[in-house]
Amino acid sequence: MGKLRAPSSSLLSCLLVLFLSSVSAVTDDPQDRQVYIVYMGSLPSRADYTPMSDHMSILQEITGESSTEGRLVRSYKRSFNGFAARLTASELERVAEMEGVVSVFPNKMLQLQTTASWDFMGLKQGTRTKRNPTVESDTIIGVIDSGITPESESFSGKGFGPPPTKWKGVCSGGENFRCNNKLIGARDYTSEGARDTEGHGTHTASTAAGNAVADTSFFGIGNGTVRGGVPASRIAAYKVCIPTGCSSEALLSAFDDAIADGVDLITISIGGKKASMFENDPIAIGAFHAMAKGILTVTAAGNSGPDDSTTSAVAPWMLTVAAGTTNRGFVTKVVLGNNKTLVGKSVNAFDMKGKMYSLVYGKSAASSSCDAETAELCKPECLKKSLVKGKILVCSSPSGLKVVGSLGAIAIIYKSPKPDVAFVHPLPASGLPEKEFESLVSYIESEDSPQAAVLKTESIFNRTSPLIGSFSSRGPNTIAVDILKPDITAPGVEILAAYSPDGEPSQYDNRHVKYSVLSGTSMACPHVAGVAAYIKTFYPKWSPSMIQSAIMTTAWPVNATGTGIASTEFAYGSGHVDPIASLNPGLVYELNKVDHIAFLCGMNYTSNVLKIISGETVTCSKEKQFSARNLNYPSMSARLSSSDNSFTVTFNRTVTNVGKPNSTYNSKVVPGHGSKLSVVVTPSVVTFKTVNEKQSFKVTVTGRDLDSELPSSANLIWSDGTHNVRSPIVVYTDAY
Q1: CB neighbours (10 Å) of residue 46?
Q2: Domain Inhibitor I9: where (predicted)?
Q3: I want to staple 312 with a disulfide (CB 3.0 to 4.6 A). Which of 163, 225, 302, 424 is the partner?
Q4: 458: Cα within 13 Å, side-chain hemisphere
C-alpha cells in the first residue's frame, strides 16, 4: 500500500466460479495466455514429493505440451505449495478442477501503500529505553517491498557481528549490490535487481529497523536523528515492486522464501484498494503460512480513506495498521500582500527569501482552448505560459502540479483534497484547506489589494493527540464481517526516513536525496513491525497472536476528529500503538493455527480445502458451526441486520496471564460511540494463581435501535490495578 502520492496524481476480489464464467468465452489463442497463480496449500509431508516436478507435470497435463518452457513463471516450493503459469481460459478451467488445487486467481499488480515518531510513541533513543541488545541483534525483519539501498547509512553493518546462525537466506541483489552484517540478505523477483530505485522500500526498512543516524533532514526540514524501532536488529529485503506495481506471483515467492530463510517477522506495505477473498489474496495466503511457522505479518490497511469498507488487509492472522499523525507537522504559510497569513500544507524546502511574487488565478490565465471554469482547475493545456511565468499560480485543484513547472511559475498554491497531509513538491507549494483557499480567492479578486504573496515553511510541535490520516483506509471488514479491522494505528503522516538517491522525492522532481518525508499507511506499518520486533526481543518464544494481542490491548485510546466512521474504531481499530506498555500487557488473547482453521470452517471453507491449506486432517462440523465472533481475537465485533430493532450478541474469550502470579483482574466497561450498549461480563472477576494460566469469560451485549450511519461501541477493560487490558466492542448494521 504505497506511500501516499501527492494529489496530482488492486486485488481483484471475486469467487473463482464468477471469474471462470467471465472468461469462458475467451478463445484459446496463445496470445490470450495470462499469468495465473495456482495455490495448492501446504507442502505434502511425504519424502518422495518434489514440488517442481509436480508443478511441471500438472502443466504438461492441462496444456498437452511436453515442455513447460514459457509457461511456468514461478514455483512455490519452500514454505507452501503452488505455482504461477501462463494459461489460456480452458486451461484455467481444467487446473481449477484438479484435486489438490485450493484456488486459481489472476496475477495482479498491487500497489505500494523518522526523527520524531519513535520519541512521540515513547521509544526513546539509547539508554532512555529498556533494550535487550543480544536478542535484538539476533532478530531478523523481512521487508517485502520495492527493494533497499544497501549503501544507506541506515543499513551500515559497522559494529554488527556475523548474521544469526538461524539465517538460511542469501544475498542475491544483483550487480553492484552488497549485503553486510546489518542488511544480511536480499532477493529480487523483478529481474531488475534488489536495489531500490523508488525509495519506498528503503523508507519502510529504515523505519522498522534502521540504524540511528544523526543530523539527518530533508533539506534542513525535520532535522534530527533518524532511526528504526529496533536499530540493533537485522534486515532481509525482498524486492517485489517496480514503478508499475507489485505482482501477486512475485509477492507469493517472497513469502515462500522469507519464511524458509528464517525471518522472525514480516512487514509488507503493499495491497489493493479493496479486500479479496482469502483464497485469492496472496498476502493473506503468505501470511497464513508465516503464522503457522510462528512469524507475524504486519500489513498496511490501505490509502483509500476516508471511504468506509476500504481496508484491504482483513485476515485475522495479520496485524493491520492504520495511519495517524505525530506531535509534529509541516506547514507552509502563505503570507499575502495585505499581511494576512493563510496556513497550508507542504514539505517545502525552497527559500523564497521573503520576496513577494504576483499571484495569478488559473481562470485569469485561460488559453483559448479552455473555458474559465476548467482553467480555474489548472488542467493541462488550459493556461497561457505568458500570463503565468514568473508568478505564483493559484489553482482550485491539484491539477496544476502537473504543469506548473513547464509554465515557468515561481510557485503554486492549490486547494488540497487532503489538507491534513504535507507533500513534497518540486517547487515552492502550499495546499490550502477549502476555507483558507476561499479567503485567497477573495483576496485575488479584490481590486484594492496588492495581489502578491510569499510562501514560508515551518515545523510545528503542537499536536497533543494523534489524528487519523484522511487517506487511511477504513473498515468495516468486507470479508470476515465480525472481525474488526484495522487493528491498530501508528505514525504514518509526514515521516522522515531513509530514501533511495535513485528515486525522486516527488513527481516531476529532479532532486536526489538520502532521506525524505513520506505519508501513507506504508509508513505506519513498519512502525508497528518495529514494535512487534521490540516485544519479540524480550519474549522470543511468544507466538504471533500473543505479540498482536499485547500491541492491541495496550494501545492509547484515540480521540478521533471528524464525523461518521472517521471518528470510530473503523478508522483506528484498538487505538494508537504504545511500545512501552506493550512490553507488559498483563493478559493476552492467544490464537493458533487450529483456531484459524476453525474460523475458516465457520466461513464455509470445506474440510478438503482446509486439509490442503493446513497440511493436516480437518473436520468442519455442520452441526456445531464455528462463529467468527468467538475467535479469540483481542477486539470484539458483530455485524447485525438493519431490520433488528433489538439484539443480543455474545462473545466468548479466553485470556492468558503473562503478568504476575496470584493476580486478580476486575472487568470494567466504558461507553464508546453511537447507540448505548448494555454489556455484561461473566464472570466479572478473573483470578490467576500462576503465570500462563488461562481463564475464560463471556461478554453479552444487548441494545436496540442501532444507528445505521455509525457503529456503536464500548470498551472492555480488565484491570489488576497495574495493567489495563482494553478491548473495543463494536456492533454495527449491514447498512454499511
Answers
A1: 6
A2: 35-113
A3: 302
A4: 10
